[in-house]
Design goal:
5-stranded antiparallel β-sheet, alpha+beta, 5 strands, single chain
């Protein structure tokens, strides 16, 4: 069984300047993050090894610069209570690359990640 790491369906954006809004869509932001879920999942897997029932939500706030690099990332909110997983997640977010923002500008993004441990195995009845 695999654990579930969901990239949230809602991306909360704070855009600066307003012209940047047309440059990167929320769907594209979501797709960039989802492309990196295996690396993010590694952070959660490490936490699960020492705390098998670890579950919760971490909302990350990060800034995308005009060249598409992430210049800053921090935890906006977390109920995971796992500083090691949070630190690893921030490192992964800082490695993300987005397309360059035409016309310059900066985009601030808040993105929630939901971490759920694997479901316990279901015992199947023996075959006759």
């Amino acid at each position: 069984m695999r654990e579930i790491v969901r990239a949230a369906a809602i991306v909360m954006l704070c855009l600066l300047p307003a012209t940047a809004a047309a440059r990167i869509s929320t769907d594209f932001i979501r797709s960039v993050i989802r492309a990196h879920l295996p690396e993010i999942r590694e952070c959660y897997d490490a936490g699960l090894r020492s705390r098998p029932g670890l579950a919760g939500r971490i909302t990350v706030r990060f800034t995308v610069e005009a060249d598409g690099s992430v210049s800053a990332a921090d935890i906006d909110h977390s109920d995971l209570a796992a500083p090691d997983v949070e630190s690893c997640l921030l490192a992964r977010v800082r490695e993300l690359r987005f397309p360059a923002i035409g016309g310059g500008g900066t985009i601030r993004i808040m993105y929630p990640f939901v971490f759920t441990p694997p479901a316990p195995p279901v015992n199947e009845p023996p075959s006759p």
